[in-house]
TrEMBL record:
GO terms for cellular component: membrane. The chain crosses the membrane at residues 534-555, 567-587, 618-640, 652-671, 677-700, 707-726, 762-788, 1228-1246, 1258-1278, 1341-1360, 1372-1391, 1403-1422, 1457-1479. PANTHER family: ABC TRANSPORTER G FAMILY MEMBER 39-LIKE, PLEIOTROPIC DRUG RESISTANCE PROTEIN 1-LIKE ISOFORM X1. Keywords: ATP-binding, Membrane, Nucleotide-binding, Repeat, Transmembrane, Transmembrane helix, Transport. Its main location: membrane. Residues 845-862 have a biased composition (Polar residues). It is a multi-pass membrane protein. Gene3D superfamilies: P-loop containing nucleotide triphosphate hydrolases (3.40.50.300). This is ABC transporter domain-containing protein.
Length: 1484
């Protein structure tokens, strides 16, 4: 600070001189020693340039600055000042500027912000600040009681029925009110960093959401929140403050920089430009020249509408994302940046904007402690020097990170226990009788001291007996504590609005002009189209292929214009053309739904209004659509031989284009309304079915029942069909011939037989209607995005006991009820009290006996329990060691890096890694983010699917074989992948049954599962559904423990854990580490990668393998007591600073070995390690372990899996059965769709089965059967895809773990479908059969049922097969849609078999739908001798004859048809199993 005072005191005397010297000293000390003459010249030159800039008009002056760069020559540095226009700085210049100013992010950020602050203070500008207050805030939620919350088919059906009755005001479900926050008051002050701490599910997220004004409206809230004295409804909180969520939702195809640039463009520059203008005005008056770099930075970050701003480069730098700037973010199927980097992108996305009030929810998940420290440090500087208001919740803040905060909010059970300066918090707890022990982080202490389980160990006065202090008591004592009293005083005085700066709050919803936002959205849309070019190319190629098929089926040499029958074939061709282009829009559905989560996030943050998202989407699809239409018409029009006039050709082209646009519109609208893949597929299919049935070509207009006629007029296909047929049939070649009655012209006769208006104006009516529909659908789509919110509400559940206690009048149940919105956790009273005294004793003993002897836990645990605690781990296992020597790993060089001029073909991710893991020793794999920890684990565990590995890996001296290794190892992945619809206990039983040897009896397995649950402390959750991460079910920490338990029940000898503690708070991390430690003490070999260890966690490890960027080892060896071994190793290196007292060794070690430290010391730690005695010792150890001990045998198992195929199948079908039973969104939706289709078909074709007058009736019936089966089939096919895709990710993990082979899994999936499809077929056939009134004979009904059942089944299996041969269900849906078109064409409906050219007839015989239609027709009409009228035929033929001759159906062919239908079903199921086995789409 003295620099600032100096500058201020000497302001009048030598203003320019003193500031110059300051600026120079900050640039480079050498300047002082270089000749003063040289620098004087530079100074004068710079002053002249400033004077020139000052004379520019304001607009230009705010865009022009001076860029300094140094030219080095032998003796001295020359400063080169060039005047730049900040709007025209290119990427390289911006990069150079950022790299020069911020070499070491946190130190240089501090210097820079001080200069910035100094500049603003000089002219006396006060920055706008925001003070957020909350008074008596209470938040409550409604929740169900008991098992009703498990989403089985029955429960969901009941819930739906209840909510329907609820609309009428009838309620009978048991519900209870659950209080999430209770009477919370506090002040978040500007220019101070505030930390929000609390155990899991204490309401941290709810509090942050409430402060940011983003609470779910279904929650009841009381109390008030104000910003600078304004209530939330008096300004726009979403724009004034930014809430940074714990879930990372990003578009996977965009790079990190593109994501942040888009965000910066949407959020604009806020008041930065106004500030700059005022600053420039005052500086000009005072005659001050600013510091060049501060000036350049401020001007460059205040430009409005820049496509890529300097603020993005700055944010990337301080968040440490500059190394992955051009890497795609990635998603489940595309490998992108790491989890920790994704977290930082989520943070960066909000801080590139102008908002200075930040509510950050657990931003450190997946980051190592040094990165967290660096980011929090930068945010602290921003808070202190730019007066920002920051409240951040962190799970496991390390002590040094904790010390960066000024204020602490401590939350427990929804109450504020403490809120005020950090200095007084420990004093407050000491006044309550609790003390934080040495070598314990304050944050960890604070999270545990309020919990019933962990409180006792901190009781300070041992002379007095301990008693439990409840959260309410702490809260009451805080009100009497001096900090609490002061807070009350502050809150009792209202905020003085005159002090507030009007610019601090935002009063308009969108801070950037609409056109700018639209431009940003256009650019992003175009970018995504380029990145997704594969999809568009695929669609175009697909349409060209189908066009080729269509033009060879309806080839012009076979197409005549003689009579009505020829006319009908032409109409078939036109219809086919229309339907293909309609189906072509189906891909929009999944592509829109993929984009929705990101859209909803941006919409809620008010980045852009809905129409700026939909408009670019729609407009940029037009060129694609034109291309596809031209491709289609070019291929088909003349080769089919439609009317040859040029005008008709272009009119036809226009119609096809409009049909495509209309289809895109209707599918987008469906996606916007349905919002989830499964429901949307159903919604999409239903829409199509209605359009199809009422388009006037399956049911001619005159035949539509009176109650459906309105549908004919609102179906876009009606207009398309009328227009396209009128355009063709009114051509001269049809009009110049006479029809069979020798009166009307042939064209008109054909039109009349199809009930189309024979009027040429209908072409333009149709085209205009399609255009209108296109606009309407897109407008409705935009409206749906504006007003609908994403689906999926996590339901809070309370068990019966807890609810009864609530009702009995205890406000709080005595059980430690931890209720989160995410799921339910309840413990019965007895268990809670029984466990905690025992556990307390264990904790006390183990906290006294720290030290690294592995015997430390056994004695204490046994003493405490009175039983041998390792009972659970008694199943025998062989302890195994693993050694690896000179392991290297390469991947192919990514395309992005090649574009930047990297020459190498391969990128090396691991370099010559050597080490060993031994039984009973807990090894930590550490390193900064991106050092290759997970890569090394994947390589050693054999989980990599790509890349090149070389080096020697041995298990107890024998070379590692993956098949046997999978049997004796467990791997806990970082992202916890589990089947969402099973409960915790079921997950464990499944794993145990499949992975424990056959010899272990069923009872033992169940006991073992229970004991593992005890060990991992999951007992209270055994009936909770796992759910999808971040959406439903278990919280992060519970999923972590489940992941570990699933591996433990396999009783492995070697366990790998990838970041078992990331995403957990201190208490949960302690529970997980306790689990891990217990596991090691049974004599297993355990290796963990770990990011952010607290001192306790770090010192639970015995050995450490430390890596640096580039995959090189820089330390491998023991930690020693209190980590003394590793500290000695690093402190022995000359130039490494000594560790501070009480400092976390893990953090210190990452700091002293960082890239920056290497650069400072001018050495390579990897080289230093390779030349140390430690390395020689490790080499010797590896050598010793790589020779098998005498008499040892290599691992051998008689079978690859522990269970027989039958056993595997039984377990798989058991799990699949539960999954299906609990997937209501899949099964109920499917059942609902089938019911709707059956009723639609029934009401449209009411009693048509009895009418047998003309061939039109027959065509209608065939159309009806064809359409109904096809649509229900397609719906089965598309709804099954996402279900299989979700289960497949779990399957990859379980198969890699050696649980089962692919066949039993696939068979289980196949068999599970059968009962559901059976139920579906039953009610479908009954409804349709009765309403259409076919003949009621047993045989005919049975055949109808049989054909429908197998048709639905083969469609379902076909859907499963498409997923198994494609990487994700988006591609699967496009692939499946390609074949729907062919199924359509060859079903025998558009063109009867005798009319199909002989070179395509083979496809008719292998088209499953054709066989379905075949079976339905001959089973119903194969024996009917009634006579019918046929246009163009003089004699009336019998139905049997007509079916045989016109459609080519042999009446006696029912047996073979049945056989073929069964064969198709089996074939698709077999293909599914085969592809699941052979293809692996997981990229690792």
């Amino acid at each position: 600070m003295d620099g600032i005072e100096r500058a201020q005191s000497g302001r009048r005397a030598g203003r320019n001189m003193s500031r110059r010297s300051m600026s120079r000293s900050s640039w480079s000390m050498e300047d002082v020693f270089t000749g003063s003459r040289n620098s004087r010249v530079n100074e004068d030159e710079e002053a002249l340039k400033w004077a020139a800039i000052e004379k520019l008009p304001t607009y230009d002056r705010l865009r022009t600055s001076i860029m300094q760069s140094f030219m080095e020559n032998e003796h001295r540095q020359n400063k080169d000042n060039k005047v730049v226009d900040v709007t025209k700085m290119d990427f390289a210049e911006r990069q150079k500027f950022i790299d020069k100013i911020f070499k070491v992010a946190e130190e240089d950020n501090q210097k820079f912000l001080e200069k910035f602050r100094n500049r603003i203070d000089k002219v006396g500008i006060r920055l706008p600040t925001v003070e957020v207050r909350l008074k008596n805030l209470t938040v409550q939620a409604d929740c169900y009681i008991g098992s009703r919350a498990l989403p089985t088919l029955l429960n969901v059906a009941q819930n739906i029925a209840e909510s329907a009755l609820g609309l009428l005001g009838i309620r009978w479900a048991k519900r209870a009110k659950l209080t999430i926050l209770k009477d919370v008051s506090g002040i978040v002050k500007p220019a101070r960093m505030a930390l929000l701490l609390g155990p899991p599910s204490s309401g941290k997220t709810t509090l942050l959401l409430a402060l940011a004004g983003k609470l779910d409206p279904s929650l009841e809230t009381q109390g008030e929140i104000t910003y600078n004295g304004y209530k939330l409804n008096e300004f726009v909180p979403q724009k004034t403050s930014a809430y940074i969520s714990q879930n990372d939702v990003h578009i996977g195809e965009m790079t990190v920089k593109e994501t942040l640039d888009f965000s910066a463009r949407c959020q604009g520059v806020g008041t930065r430009y106004e500030l700059l203008g005022e600053l420039a005005r005052r500086e000009k008056q005072a005659g001050i020249f600013p510091e060049p770099e501060v000036d350049l930075f401020m001007k460059a970050t205040a430009i409005k509408g820049a496509e890529s701003s300097l603020i993005t480069d700055y944010t990337l730098k301080i968040l440490g994302l500059d190394i992955c700037r051009d890497t795609i973010v990635g998603d489940q199927m595309q490998r992108g940046i790491s989890g920790g980097q994704k977290k930082r992108v989520t943070t960066g996305e909000m801080i590139v904007g102008p908002t200075k009030t930040l509510f950050m929810d657990e931003i450190s998940t997946g980051l190592d402690s040094s990165t967290t420290f660096q980011i929090v440090k930068c945010l602290q500087q921003i808070a202190h020097l730019t007066d920002a208001t920051i409240l951040m919740s962190l799970l496991q803040p390390a002590p040094e990170t904790f010390d960066l905060f000024d204020d602490i909010f401590l939350l427990a059970e929804g109450r504020i226990v403490y809120q005020g300066p950090r200095e007084h918090i420990l004093e407050f707890f000491e006044s309550c009788g609790f003390r934080c022990p040495e070598r314990k982080g304050a944050a960890d202490f604070l999270q545990e001291v309020t919990s019933r389980k962990d409180q006792e160990q901190y009781w300070s006065d041992r002379s007095r007996p301990y008693r439990y202090v409840s959260v309410e008591e702490f809260a009451a004592r805080f009100k009497r504590f001096h900090v609490g009293m002061q807070l009350d005083n502050e809150l009792s005085l209202p905020f003085d609005k005159s002090h507030g700066h009007r610019a601090a709050l935002v009063f308009s919803r969108y801070s950037v002009p609409k056109l700018e936002v639209l431009r940003a959205c256009f650019d992003r849309e175009w970018l995504l189209i380029k990145k997704n070019s594969f999809v568009y190319i695929f669609k175009t190629v697909q349409i060209i292929l189908i066009a080729f098929i269509a033009s060879t089926v309806f080839i012009r040499t076979r197409m005549h214009t003689r009579n009505e029958a020829d006319g009908a074939v032409y109409v078939g061709a036109l219809l086919f053309s229309m339907i293909i282009n309609l189906f072509n829009g189906f891909a929009e559905l999944s592509m829109t739904i993929m984009r929705l989560p990101v859209f909803y996030k941006h919409r809620d943050l008010l980045f852009h209004p809905a129409w700026t998202f939909t408009l670019p989407n729609m407009i940029l699809n037009i060129p694609m659509s034109i291309l596809e239409s031209i491709a289609w018409i070019g291929m088909t029009y003349y080769s089919i031989g439609f009317a040859p006039e040029a005008s008709r050709f272009f009119k036809h082209l226009l119609l096809v284009f409009l049909i495509q646009q209309m289809a895109s519109g209707i599918f987008r609208l469906t996606a916007g309304l349905c919002r989830s893949m499964i429901i949307a597929n159903t919604g999409g299919a239903l829409t199509l079915l209605v359009l199809f049935m009422l388009g006037g070509f399956i049911l001619p207009r005159g035949e539509i029942p009176s109650w459906w006629v309105w549908g004919y007029w609102v179906s876009p296909l009606t207009y398309a069909f009328n227009a396209i047929t009128v355009n063709e049939m009114l051509a001269p070649r049809w009009m110049d011939k006479l029809a069979s009655d020798n009166r009307t012209s042939l064209g008109v006769a054909v039109l009349e037989s199809f009930d189309v208006f024979p009027d040429k104006n209908w072409y333009w009516i149709g085209a205009a209607a399609l255009l209108g529909f296109t606009v309407l659908f897109n407008v409705l789509y935009t409206v749906s995005l504006m007003y609908l919110s994403p689906l999926g509400k996590p339901q809070a559940i309370i068990s019966e006991e807890a609810a009864q206690e609530l009702e009995a009048g205890h406000e709080e149940p005595k059980t430690p009820r931890r209720l989160s919105k995410k799921g339910s956790k309840t413990t019965s009273l007895s268990a809670a009290d029984g466990n905690n005294s025992r556990e307390m004793a264990i904790r006390r003993m183990s906290s006294q006996a720290t030290g690294n002897d592995s015997g430390r836990n056994e004695s204490s645990l046994e003493a405490a329990n009175g039983v041998a605690p390792k009972r659970g781990m008694v199943l025998p296992f062989a302890p195994l060691a693993m050694s690896f020597d000179e392991v290297n790993y390469y991947v192919d060089m990514p395309a992005e890096m090649k574009e930047q001029g990297v020459q190498d073909e391969k990128l090396q991710l691991l370099r010559e890694v050597t080490g060993a893991f031994r039984p009973g020793v807990l090894t930590a794999l550490m390193g900064v983010s991106g050092a290759g920890k997970t890569t090394l684990m994947d390589v050693l565990a054999g989980r990599k699917t790509g890349g090149y590995i070389d080096g020697d890996i041995r298990i107890s001296g024998f070379p590692k074989k993956q098949e046997t290794f999978a049997r004796i190892s467990g791997y806990c992945e970082q992202n916890d992948i589990h089947s969402p619809q099973v409960t915790v206990k079921e997950s464990l039983i499944f794993s145990a049954y499949l992975r424990l040897p056959k010899e272990v009896s069923k009872e033992d397995k169940m006991i073992f599962v229970d004991e593992v649950m005890e060990l991992v402390e999951l007992h209270s959750l055994k009936d909770a559904l796992v759910g999808l991460p971040g959406i439903t079910g278990l919280s992060t920490e519970q999923r972590k423990r489940l992941t570990i338990a699933v591996e433990l029940v396999a009783n492995p000898s070697i366990i790998f854990m990838d970041e078992p503690t990331s995403g957990l708070d201190a208490r949960a991390a302690a529970i997980v580490m306790r689990t891990v430690r217990n596991t090691v003490d049974t004599g297993r070999t355990v290796v963990c990668t770990i990011h952010q260890p607290s001192i306790d966690i770090f010192e639970a490890f015995d050995e450490l393998l430390l890596m640096k960027r580039g995959g090189q080892v820089i330390y491998s060896g023991p930690l020693g007591r209190n980590s003394h071994k590793i500290i000695e190793y690093f402190e022995a290196i000359p130039g490494v600073p000594k560790i501070k007292d009480k400092y976390n060794p893990a953090t210190w070690m990452l700091e002293v070995s960082s890239m920056a430290a290497e650069a400072r010391l001018g050495m390579d730690f990897a080289e230093h390690y390779r030349s140390s005695s430690l390395y020689q010792r490790n080499k010797a150890l590896v050598k010793e372990l790589s020779a098998p001990p005498p008499g040892a045998e290599d691992l051998y198992f008689p079978t690859q899996y522990s269970q027989s195929l039958g056993g595997q199948f039984k377990s798989c079908i058991w799990k699949q059965w539960w999954t299906y039973w609990r997937s209501p969104d899949y099964n109920l939706v499917r059942f609902f769709f089938t019911l709707a289709s059956a009723l639609l078909v029934g009401t449209m074709f009411w009693k048509i089965g009895t009418r047998r007058e003309s061939s039109t009736d027959l065509t209608m019936i065939i159309g009806a059967m064809y359409a109904a089966v096809l649509f229900v089939g397609i719906n089965n096919c598309s709804t099954v895809q996402p279900v299989v895709a979700v289960e497949r990710t779990v399957f990859y993990r379980e198969r890699a773990a050696g649980m089962y082979s692919s066949l039993p899994y696939a068979l289980a999936q196949v068999f599970c479908e059968i009962p559901y499809v059976f139920v579906q077929t039953s009610y479908y056939t009954l409804i349709v059969y009765a309403m259409v009134s076919f003949e009621w004979t047993v045989e005919k009904f049975f055949w109808f049922f049989f054909v429908s059942f197998f048709s639905f089944l083969y469609f379902t299996y076909y859907g499963m097969m498409t997923v198994s041969i494609t990487p994700n269900h988006q591609v699967a849906s496009i692939f499946a849609a390609a074949f729907y078109a062919l199924f359509n064409l060859f079903s025998g409906f558009f063109i009867p078999r005798p009319k199909i050219p002989k070179w395509w007839v083979w496809y008719y015989w292998i088209c499953p739908v054709a066989w379905t239609v075949y079976g339905l027709i001959i089973s119903q009409y194969g024996d009917v001798e009634d006579l019918i009228t046929v246009p163009g035929m003089l004699e009336r033929p019998s139905i049997k004859w007509y079916i045989e001759n016109h459609f080519g159906y042999e009446p006696g062919f029912m047996g073979p048809v049945a056989g073929v239908l069964v064969a198709f079903t089996v074939f698709f199921a077999f293909m599914f199993a085969f592809c699941i086995k052979v293809l692996n789409f997981q990229m690792r």
